[in-house]
Amino acid sequence: KFGLGLSYSTYSSNLSLNGNELIYSPGAGGGEATKVNVKATVKNTGTIAGSYTALFFCFDETRYVTPEYKRLLHFEQIYLKPGEEEEISWDLTLKNFVHIGPHDSTHRVLQEGQQLRIGLGADVDCRETSNDSLCSPPVGWTMEDNRVYDGACHAACQLWDESGCSPFYGFEWDKCYDMCTNISKENYPINGSHEGWGWNYVACIETIVRANVGDSVADDAASCPKMTTMCRDIFHTKLLDECGNLPLGTRMADAFLDAGVAFVAGIIAAIF
Fold this sequence. Notes:
272 residues; alpha+beta; six-stranded mixed sheet
């Protein structure tokens, strides 16, 4: 059986978690997130010493794309004498929720409302028998302060941070993310179907940032303007969604006026 090998002894085990939710505070450098501690106590109930391999699987409750039936997240092998018991402890982190999204095959995202269960042992099936004592209750994650999660906005702002060009535009991570996700909150023709500036924009700035392997774009003073000349100029088109739509009821003239104000502000910032 996978991961177990042979043993001439018998074992008992239990599983416990110290919480059911991780809190994510996004930001520069990836942000920060809390963790949920997973513990298992294993006891050798036989009369012969032996090795026990503790296998911790996760079973996704919800996912935009079809998940694996179960994933091995952690394993440890321990040696126990008859009657001896030992505790195994590890942390469930936000990385365990990250997966390839439905938009393409390269970018990894999170999903709001995503939950999973932790199961201990190769035989445990937390989909079929979720009330098994070796299956945890559902564990999920949420954004700090009830902020909206948007995968494309998150990826775009991470790239801006990685580029080193944010200070050049006075464009720190929070300002970037709020500006992008505000599109999702506005009343657009495709309300509820937005991904901020869109994945095409992410792919565009990614080619600029990743072209400078080993160095940030900001190391080359001439490269930062490429972020707005070779790709969409988000500072002058911040009212437009990824499809080029304006909020319902907004006049095109208002959009150009807003762009003009932003342009002047950018020139002043560059001078001073």
